[in-house]
């Protein structure tokens, strides 16, 4: 993992992004601690694709600087983000735009995918993001630009349900995912990483729009 980070640094990366989960959690504890530590040792920011509670909580404990996408979160995870001052960059554009049949059809997106997106728009996991915002977690507006239907100048329309419920915080149940508790040794290592570099942006933006952003997933 350290070598993968160094390869990106030598190539000119100014930020490292890791794919911390998909359907399952990625990386061993040792790998996760190493990639975060090596990124910080080189004075860079590290952000993580994390879309459900177990993953968001895990990367926060290990010391990432930012969470990409976000998703279901318990109150405990939201408090952890607050305590560590970790922002979330949300990316609703692909989900919302691809759920509009007449738009998706122009991009040859199959009907089953459109139906999947339409169901996802109503997914209760997004309540976790509303709760996080209401609690004071910094929310960055990302676009995930480059996804089908989402050009670099396209953003998702504001959801009426979002604006109506943004001030209401409820206790949420996280999506099912294998819980992982990092050992004390690796948590200590991650927590002792240097503070955020001086060039850390004052407002979060989507990593997809940064020209030098690199994703590290090699082991």
Q: What would you say this structure looks like, in words?
A:
This protein has 219 residues and is an alpha/beta fold. The protein has helices spanning 2-10, 29-41, 53-62, 75-84, 93-98, 101-104, 111-121, 127-135, 160-165, 184-191, and strands at residues 15-19, 45-50, 66-69, 88-90, 139-141, 214-216. A 6-stranded parallel beta sheet has the order 5-4-3-2-1-6. Helix 1 (2-10) packs parallel to helix 2, helix 2 runs parallel beside helix 10 and helix 4 packs across helix 8. The longest helix is centred in the first third of the chain and has 13 residues, at 29-41. The radius of gyration is 17 Å and the shape is globular. Residues 160-167 and 170-219 have low confidence and may be disordered.
Keyphrases for this structure?
219 residues; alpha/beta; six-stranded parallel β-sheet; 10 helices; 6 strands
